[in-house]
């Protein structure tokens, strides 16, 4: 019976939906996390009579056709790239982006990854790195005797050195943006890499046209709304249950049919 297979596609789709929602909820406190959203599409239809079909010699036509769908499929699990709330941390190397852009991160294999997580620190060489030790481009090294580190809205890093009154500029944190940032591929560790779908990175600096500004001593929270995710979870659970009811009903109908045929 067709209803069995149709309802099965609905159950599989809602199972994936629940998995995505659970991942969002698990990352509700992940810095710079962008929540995922599942998009669905209906499957092919079988047409028994198409709309507009001629029904008599007088050219009368059927106003509405007769057709049955075959279920649902998942079209994408895209990310919602909206801005998360900025929270103060009181750490001098924590930086948040207010607006468009991603931090450029140098991976150990030479690739460039991109992140909204600005929870940076210094490694043993004084380089500005992520919590996993990946270098923040363009590679800023802070002297071990530096004091009063400051990062302005444009990403310029300045420090005060002993015996000097004027601050010394060490470099400027670079940002990147994409024509289609939803097309970025997540590789874990709060990192993304570009794909053919995202297009090439457009590099720039904070405050330039199309780019956001940087804010020191702040981090961007994930954009997950717990109440919204719980509501979506309940809706997905109910949809899953309804599809399972369809399978039960179809099974009972098939049983009744087989008993009649006996």
From TrEMBL:
PROSITE patterns: FLAGELLA_BB_ROD. It comes from the Bacteria. Residues 4-34 form the Flagellar basal body rod protein N-terminal domain. InterPro entries: Flag_bb_rod_N, Flagellar_basal_body_rod_CS, Flagellar_FlgE/F/G, Flg_bb/hook_C_dom, FlgE/F/G-like, FlgG_G_neg, LlgE_F_G-like_D1. Residues 215-260 form the Flagellar basal-body/hook protein C-terminal domain. Its main location: other. Keywords: Bacterial flagellum, Cell projection, Cilium, Flagellum. Pfam families: Flg_bb_rod, Flg_bbr_C, LlgE_F_G_D1. The keyword Magnesium does not apply. It is found in: Bacterial flagellum basal body. Residues 96-159 form the Flagellar hook protein FlgE/F/G-like D1 domain. Belongs to the flagella basal body rod proteins family. The basal body constitutes a major portion of the flagellar organelle and consists of four rings (L,P,S, and M) mounted on a central rod. The rod consists of about 26 subunits of FlgG in the distal portion, and FlgB, FlgC and FlgF are thought to build up the proximal portion of the rod with about 6 subunits each. This is Flagellar basal-body rod protein FlgG. It comes from Bosea eneae.
